[in-house]
Write a structure and sequence with these properties.
By secondary structure, this protein is α/β, with parallel strands linked by helices. About 30% of the residues lie in helices and about 25% in strands. The protein is built from 16 helices and 27 strands. The strands form six sheets. An eight-stranded mixed beta sheet has the order 7-6-5-3-2-1-19-20. It has a six-stranded mixed beta sheet with strand order 8-9-10-11-12-18. A five-stranded parallel beta sheet has the order 14-15-13-16-17, sandwiched between helices. A hairpin with a 2-residue loop joins β25 (about 520-525) and β26. It is globular and about 85 Å long. The protein starts with 9 loop residues before the first strand and ends in a 22-residue tail after the last strand.
Length: about 575
């Protein structure tokens, strides 16, 4: 029998997924052992110029890498597995457990990133239990979601059972025939669940989330009415939706050309694992379908969220080399915009319509349903598990608040419910729950070259908002300008004539040199011995920044290039001259 008073607390530390949509990442820590559930990414907002993906700040895991015993993956969506390859470049994860489809997708990501040797991938089956370290046993419970092979996790810990729902919806007629294991959840609820962490994405949506199958007849009607080519875009990872689209292509005697790397990848893995069943001759490459009658062609693409480099976006921008919109084309958006993407999606739809396409989109068309539980489904999860403590996760703040209210209406006391932030340390014992600390949290931004630091992002934002001013000046050993400084303005709106601005720049530099030269040019026995060119450059740059703010009424990024002489003037003296002359830029 466990002595409750002597049992340390279980720490639950979310690093992503709280007060936001995406980058779902959660740490479970007991004594000196850490288990990670999911490690996802998010996509950049409009202010993150040049950024490809957004990851959670993993400082805490980097600092505690020796405690990591393993990882649990709930399903194969990018906001749950997309960050793993990046993190494995910084620390090892001894073993990663997850469903077959997620592990297949992850294997490819790790091999491409060159980190496949940094963890061992192990697939699990429904109701399988695996021990991770000495403190944790993970039990995988089948749920239903918008991707095949999705799990809710029952984590057996020394303080009790914690259930992490992962992403879920209640679908009584799943496309793949894999039913939600309500029985197992109810068994845990009967025995006693210490804490429930539950998906809050649709906490503001009343009722039940419709079954994925409800989309089929609506898509069927759209396909039947399309007179020419069909171009369909949806989430590549929505395996059930993709499967239905391929079934309908067969029904309407259309061959399918798949465009987009992620779509090709997911379909290949889903077919290998049996989640998508269709004949090989259903598929044809783009160059082959161009010769077929339009009514025999379906092009399945990525880009349902208006992503800049996705196929549908490039088609809309008339930048795709092989696909051009024609009169009579029907374009189907079988997805709703996720928060933050609405403007990009609407712009894409407008461009397609201008080129003559009939675009089918919107909630009223019934061609998309959510993969997340609505209010009545969330209540069912609470009723089945009957947790002592409740933590709403995976959602923006208003969603978490609504979910917490729902739990309280179902009998969970307010003091047993906590709304937390990324980085909060939640301590759970058999008798208590509360926030007891904070670890580093935030974001790590990644572009094609690597991590984008805050200073770089600020410079990019400054460039986008106010442009850049470049000033180049040459200074001699006596602190005099050797020539008229060069000035270049890019993206700067200025009421000041360039010639006047150049005069002001010259005056500013000359004033700094005359007033401050002795601070940076030290002398020895009456002769100049050492010049701090870096310090001088910094001072002139500050003065020019003040000038730019005053005269341009904006804050452009200022780049000042200082050219200094390569060699000091040669003089015969009693002592050897010391010099740090160099080009500062």
């Amino acid at each position: 029998m466990t002595n409750k008073e002597s049992t340390p607390a279980l720490k639950i530390i979310p690093l992503g997924g709280l007060h936001e949509i995406g980058k779902n990442t959660c740490i479970f820590e007991f004594n000196d052992e850490i288990v990670l559930i999911d490690a996802g990414l998010a996509f950049p907002n409009d202010e993150m110029h040049g950024v490809n993906i957004v990851l959670p700040d993993m400082t805490y895991l980097r600092d505690n890498r020796d405690k990591i015993k393993g990882m649990i993956v709930t399903h194969g969506h990018e906001d749950h597995i997309g960050g793993i390859a990046y993190h494995l470049k910084q620390f090892d994860i001894p073993v990663t457990y997850g469903p077959r489809l997620a592990m297949a997708l992850l294997q490819g990501k790790l091999e491409e990133a060159g980190v496949a040797d940094r963890t061992v991938l192990k697939t699990v089956q429904p109701r399988e239990m695996v021990r991770i370290g000495t403190s944790f046993v993970a039990e995988f419970i089948r749920n239903t979601h918008s991707i095949s092979d999705s799990f809710t996790i029952a984590l057996h810990t020394p303080v009790g059972i914690v259930i992490h729902t992962g992403d879920f919806k209640v679908d009584h007629t799943p496309v793949d025939g894999e039913f939600f294991d309500f029985q197992r959840l109810a068994e845990h609820g009967e025995k006693g669940v210490l804490c429930l962490l539950s998906d809050s994405t649709n906490a503001e949506v009343p009722g039940n989330t419709p079954s994925e199958r409800s989309v089929y007849p609506n898509l069927d009607r759209v396909f039947a009415q399309a007179p020419g080519r069909l171009l369909v875009t949806t989430f590549a990872s929505s395996v059930h939706r993709v499967n239905m689209i391929l079934e309908l292509a067969q029904k309407h005697n259309r061959v399918v050309s798949v465009v987009g790397r992620s779509m090709l990848n997911v379909i290949a893995h889903a077919r290998n694992l049996g989640y998508i069943k269709c004949p090989d001759n259903l598929f044809e490459p783009l160059h082959a379908v161009s010769n077929l009658p339009p009514e025999k062609v379906l092009i399945l693409t990525t880009g349902s969220q208006g992503e800049p480099m996705a196929a549908m976006t490039r088609i809309a921008n008339q930048e795709h080399r092989q696909i051009k919109i024609r009169e009579g084309d029907t374009v189907v958006f079988s997805a709703n915009p996720i928060p933050g993407n609405t403007i990009a999606v609407v712009n894409t739809i407008d461009k397609l319509m201008i080129q003559g396409a009939n675009v089918v989109y919107g909630r009223d068309k019934g061609i998309h349903v959510s993969g997340h539980a609505s209010q009545e489904d969330q209540k069912l999860m609470l009723a089945l598990t009957r947790p002592k403590f409740f933590v709403p996760v995976h959602g923006e703040h208003r969603m978490l608040v609504q979910h917490a209210k729902m739990a309280q209406n179902m009998g969970i006391p307010a003091e047993n419910t906590v709304i937390i932030n990324n980085g909060d340390v939640v301590s759970v014992t058999p008798d208590s729950i509360g926030v007891t600390g904070k670890v580093p949290s935030g974001v790590e931004l990644v572009d094609r070259s690597g991590v984008v630091h805050d200073s770089v992002l600020k410079e990019r934002q400054q460039l986008a908002e106010d442009g850049v001013v470049t000033v180049a000046a040459a200074v001699d050993w006596e602190g005099k300008l050797l020539a008229k400084p060069e000035i270049h303005l890019r993206g700067v709106v200025s009421a000041v004539e360039k010639s006047l601005l150049q005069q002001l720049v010259i005056k500013t530099i000359e004033r700094t040199l005359s007033d401050r030269w002795t601070e940076f040019a030290k002398s020895f026995e009456g002769e100049q011995a050492e010049i701090d060119w870096v310090g001088l450059q910094t001072q002139i740059e500050r003065d020019l920044q003040r000038l730019a703010r005053r005269e341009l009424q904006s804050c452009p990024l200022l780049v000042f290039l200082l050219q200094s002489p390569e060699e000091p003037p040669i003089k015969v003296t009693g002592r050897r001259r010391r010099s740090t002359a160099k080009v500062a830029s």
